[in-house]
Design goal:
This protein is mainly α and 103 residues long. The protein has six helices and no strands.
């Protein structure tokens, strides 16, 4: 199940692929963090930002959860504006599919 609400029709192939990967991480919390962040930001990211975002996405979900939640220190290589934007993003954990299932 995905929570995708953004149409990828107007996105280039790279952005469509990233958006799909953001919603199919493997850990639901990371699906919501990455998926909702990507829906909001993907269209406006530069190529350099997309490169960095994909580098972050390549990390293990369990590590990312700990870094984003602040239970582990963020490695120096990820102490970047992009990671800070991602970590500062607060997803709606009932968005949107979970909210529909509650009805």
């Amino acid at each position: 199940m995905t929570g995708v609400t953004l149409s990828s029709a107007d996105l280039d192939p790279r952005r469509r692929r990233i958006l799909f990967r953001c919603w199919h991480r493997g850990i639901r919390e990371m699906d919501l963090v990455f998926g909702q962040f990507a829906e909001k930001e993907i269209a406006g990211l530069s190529e350099v930002e997309l490169d960095e975002f994909e580098t972050i996405m390549a990390e293990e979900d369990n590590d990312l959860v700990r870094w984003i939640m602040g239970t582990w220190p963020v490695p120096e290589r990820f102490q970047t504006p992009m990671f800070e934007r991602l970590a500062a993003y607060k997803p709606d954990f009932e968005y949107p599919a979970d909210a529909r299932n509650a009805e």
